[in-house]
Design goal:
32% of the residues lie in helices and 21% in strands. It has 169 residues and is an alpha+beta fold. It is globular.
C-alpha cells in the first residue's frame, strides 16, 4: 500500500490550531538562532500566531496555504502581495513571510511544494517579483530558495544598544 499523496491547498479555519503550532515553532527556531533579535515564543504564542494567520485567510492580497497528507497539516506558507516599500527601496512584490514544515516531514519536498504553490498564487495576483527573508543560519532554506531562483540582495544586521566593545559612530 502506497503512502497518501501530499496536497497543497488554501488554509481553512479548521487549520488554525495547526497553523498556530507551526507558527510558534517558527518563532522558537528563530529565537534559538538569536534570542536578542527574535521574539520569544511565550505563553499563548500558538493561539496568537494561529489567530493572526486565520485573520489573513480571507484577505484578497494575502495567501495562507497548507500542505497536508491524510488530513494532517505538514507545513504552511504565508505570503502577501505588497506595494512599494520605500524603507526597503523595493517596488511592488509578492512577499513570502513564512514557510515552515514540521521537522518530522522535512526533506520530503513539502517545502518545495509550498514555495511553488505560493509563487503560483502570487503570480496570479500579478506580483512582478518575489522576495523573502531567511535567517543567516538556515542553510537548508537558503538552498531551497536558491534552487527556486532567488538571489541574495540584502543582509540584515542587528546590534543591541548596549553591545560591549561597540564603537560609537
Amino acid at each position: 500500500m502506497s503512502e497518501a499523496a501530499i496536497t497543497v491547498r488554501r488554509a481553512a479555519p479548521q487549520d488554525t490550531a495547526a497553523l498556530g503550532r507551526l507558527g510558534a515553532l517558527l518563532m522558537s527556531v528563530h529565537y534559538a538562532y538569536d534570542a536578542a533579535r527574535f521574539i520569544a515564543p511565550g505563553d499563548g504564542a500558538e493561539a496568537l500566531y494561529g489567530g493572526f494567520l486565520a485573520s489573513q485567510m480571507d484577505s484578497g492580497d494575502a495567501i495562507v496555504l497548507v500542505a497536508e497528507q491524510t488530513d494532517v497539516v505538514l507545513g504552511y506558507v504565508y505570503a502577501a502581495l505588497e506595494g512599494n516599500d520605500w524603507l526597503a527601496l523595493r517596488g511592488p512584490a509578492g512577499v513570502i513571510h513564512d514557510l515552515i514544515v514540521d521537522p518530522t516531514r522535512r526533506s520530503a519536498g513539502v517545502g518545495r511544494m509550498l514555495l511553488k504553490a505560493a509563487l503560483d498564487a502570487l503570480d496570479e495576483l500579478g506580483a512582478p517579483r518575489f522576495v523573502l527573508f531567511t535567517a543567516t543560519q538556515n542553510a537548508a532554506a537558503q538552498r531551497l530558495f536558491a534552487a527556486a531562483g532567488f538571489r541574495a540582495t540584502m543582509i540584515e544586521m542587528t546590534r543591541e544598544r548596549d553591545a560591549p566593545d561597540a564603537e560609537k559612530p
